[in-house]
Amino acid sequence: MKSALNRSVTRRDFLYRAAAVGGTGFLLNAMNAWGMGIASTMSGPPVLSGSGKGKSVVILGAGLAGMTAAYELNKLGYKVQVLEARGFAGGRCQTARKGFELTELGGETQRCAFDAGQYINHGPWRIPLHHQSTLHYTRTFEVPLEVMVNDNDHAFVYLENGGPLAKQRLRPAQIKADMRGHVAELLAKSVQDHLLDRQLTDDDQRALLDYLKHEGQLEAGDLRYKGRTGRGFAVNPGAGMNPGPGTPSDPLGFHDLLASGVGKVYSAVQDYPMQNTMFQPVGGMDQIAKAFEKRVGRHIRYHAEVRTIRHGDNNVTVAWKDTQTGKESTVTADYCLCTLPLSTLRMVDTDFSDGFKNAIKAVAYAPVGKIGLQMKRRFWEEDDHIYGGHVLTDIKGINTISLPSTSWQKKKGVLLGYYNYQTDAIAVSALSPAERAEFALAAGEKIFPAYRDAFDSAFSVAWHRVQYNLGGWAEWNDDSRKNAYPLLLEGEKRVLLAGEHLSYLTGWQAGAIESAWQQLARIHERAMA
Amino acid sequence: MKSALNRSVTRRDFLYRAAAVGGTGFLLNAMNAWGMGIASTMSGPPVLSGSGKGKSVVILGAGLAGMTAAYELNKLGYKVQVLEARGFAGGRCQTARKGFELTELGGETQRCAFDAGQYINHGPWRIPLHHQSTLHYTRTFEVPLEVMVNDNDHAFVYLENGGPLAKQRLRPAQIKADMRGHVAELLAKSVQDHLLDRQLTDDDQRALLDYLKHEGQLEAGDLRYKGRTGRGFAVNPGAGMNPGPGTPSDPLGFHDLLASGVGKVYSAVQDYPMQNTMFQPVGGMDQIAKAFEKRVGRHIRYHAEVRTIRHGDNNVTVAWKDTQTGKESTVTADYCLCTLPLSTLRMVDTDFSDGFKNAIKAVAYAPVGKIGLQMKRRFWEEDDHIYGGHVLTDIKGINTISLPSTSWQKKKGVLLGYYNYQTDAIAVSALSPAERAEFALAAGEKIFPAYRDAFDSAFSVAWHRVQYNLGGWAEWNDDSRKNAYPLLLEGEKRVLLAGEHLSYLTGWQAGAIESAWQQLARIHERAMA
């Protein structure tokens, strides 16, 4: 099982596997499965006894990890103080809507100009059904959820390098029906021709044939795949005589499908974190951040940039600067829970041991870019009957155009114009905001004729250029997981670390929350000892 | 293509195909695809010129067909009068919530006792993305939609007669991953062993092997299927060191899968009407009826039971009885559009020709039963992480337990406890409401341990016993489609018929709407002539 395991859960290998698709290194499946760590394992905060009364914890960062810790530790009686460099809480759990401002490092300031009610979740945007930790808080805090359509057999796949099927707007329903139909036919004929007599008993062969007829909807007589209703119709059925019953449209040819590589864009089942049911908070992902903030906001010091950490055997002292006034202050507490991304923590002046400092530097952070495009008209719904889901493409730097799963049938909508990563993200992020929008439009109009005309305004982010984040998420490799990760998990003296980076759910909010649960339990255990 | 066509679109054949699953005639797929007519073809009402001013149309029935006609004809200037036997509009487009009353023929009165905010759509419950006609009105009338989770790889399949996999709560994700994995392995080895050299070129074999490795996530070396993340984990990944990266759980054996027949519960792609994205109106399906009613209610005469239809060359006279006062009245109009189900129309005293009367009698109506069960606790979400979708089972008379796609994470919820059909529906409908609830509980607790304890109250319907409907939908067969259907579509003199029964979208609201569009256009054409 070991090799299947590694293949399944390291992002690097996953990307490698995805890069094989289409033969030209595009990352459709990787895009679809970012934050490769999969399912959460804890379904509620740790059940702890004893009181933290009289003990204090300084928490660095008011992202989901920091606020989770503040919320739970406060309930246990601890005095908590959260230092947050930004003027708002949530960390990467952000939503860009009218008035939201972002100035990337070395970049011009963007001020989101979407209409009221329109927004883009430019950080995390999905909550899978098995992320019970995130769902614990949406339930507890009564954050209303709605379904995020993460799987839509009607959203196009569009390959520039798709061989005989290049530059066509293909529907996944067609591809899945036809690939699996042709494959079923091939195997059914092998059974019929007794090519599998050595491998399978007569009973199993009969059952297999039965299954294949169903799976591929093969003709009863000649076992041929000739199309099926699931792929769509040449003429749709409707009322009256004409149109009468619909005829399934003609299947794509087996050779063309194989030569295009398009069958490999999809797979037998979605990878675990991508399966239905997928959720998003009604009104934007930051509703989760706001729900936390409502409960722990009084413990958060905003505009407080951490400058130094000094830790002893009995307490921890953190110096911070008020970014509005420039004034420096310190806070001393019994414990420190540091949830700063390692990309940021490595720039803080600390008296950690060299081993610990090196461990902090050992992990890379993912360059990631996203752009939200407000469209005057929901042409994908109106013209193409695509309601949510992802248009997958090998257009370099685009990877996916994702359609909004909210405000169905309304006039306007904000779609995700690209979701890029690594070298692609670095290249695109070098463009100005206006150039990024132009880049997205030039690609999108290849797929949707109405794209450019409908365009209203854009808001983009390059997470590797965002101060206090400097990347989308921690990217462990086998080496750093083995050597640096355990050291960081352990912490040093009275400083413990938490965040998505200290989980196998990197890039997911569940990773941040579960890591916080784990580390706050350790603080409490030590405080009670 | 002819045979594929017939196989695809007649419900009888479809049921036959589904009945083969499991070898014991259960109808999982049929349940999943009721209302077999598939995709609508008209995306908006007919564009008509000229005015109907001074002309009158009496419309029988204020279901979606009748109200569509009333709305559009009224816009054209016609004087419309709608006769509706019930005290409310909508026809089968109903939602049972607190206080909703139903007295089936010969049955006791049920008064829905769900909590405020809880409901069941006991008539139509799904709007597929390609039913552009239904979606035309939800958009025009601004009826808010939400996603109805119609496809959930985490909702169980539970087979009493599932051979080696009987009486287990299987997740579709496991079944799909494993069946397709094993099949991919088998075919990959056939390629490797040169068994397919005659059928495929070298290039195609290479591409096929590549595809199969991806589709089945086969081991690179021995091409074996050993599980995959998509099937779930033995131990889920999470924060910290322990649990570390998850191990995919062990696959179900190929022989067991084949012998159980469970692979045939699912198929390469969902049939067309069942594909994502599926919608439901926020707050209940009857929001569509109410939106129509708001616009045409002033033209509706409620409690008006149609008694006789007399039609001449110049006008139509309909006699109706006020069911509250017993008073009989008549209305005469230039045209009559009759949207009564044929099951009901056949009992009305008319002076139609014998040929037309016989055609009206030629179609059967489907016995259909549903039960809504309010549960005190959403145990399917809390205990099993199933958010919406259908638990499919071969338990006789149950077929599906469908979980609600609304009020996520709230305390209570109403699930669909069975959805039965034909002889099963007839058998279950013979029970009293309390007995039906007991029947549903006895089945449900086999699958969900918390089922009976969580039960609060029930509301059931047997559509074949509901006055003015007498069945779920029209069930054409090849013979009646060929002989009776064209006659009915044509109408007689100044009486035209409309409804889901005059479409190839039987059982769907889109069928009713599109049929109304078609027939109102014919009325207008004749009025303008």
From TrEMBL, chains A, B:
Pathway(s) where this gene product acts: Plant hormone metabolism; auxin biosynthesis
Catalytic activity line of the entry: L-tryptophan + O2 = indole-3-acetamide + CO2 + H2O
Domain of life: Bacteria
Chain ranges of the Amine oxidase domain: 64-518
Gene Ontology biological process terms, A to Z: amino acid catabolic process; auxin biosynthetic process
Keywords linked to the UniProt accession: Auxin biosynthesis, Membrane, Transmembrane, Transmembrane helix
EC number: 1.13.12.3
MF terms in GO: L-amino-acid oxidase activity; tryptophan 2-monooxygenase activity
Keyword Transmembrane included in the entry's annotation: yes
Annotated transmembrane regions: 14-36
Pfam families reported in the protein's UniProt record: Amino_oxidase
Name of the top EC class for this enzyme: oxidoreductase
Cited PANTHER family: AMINE OXIDASE (PTHR10742:SF342), FLAVIN MONOAMINE OXIDASE (PTHR10742)
Family: Belongs to the tryptophan 2-monooxygenase family.
Full protein name: Tryptophan 2-monooxygenase
Organism from which the protein derives: Pseudoduganella flava
Taxonomic path: Bacteria, Pseudomonadati, Pseudomonadota, Betaproteobacteria, Burkholderiales
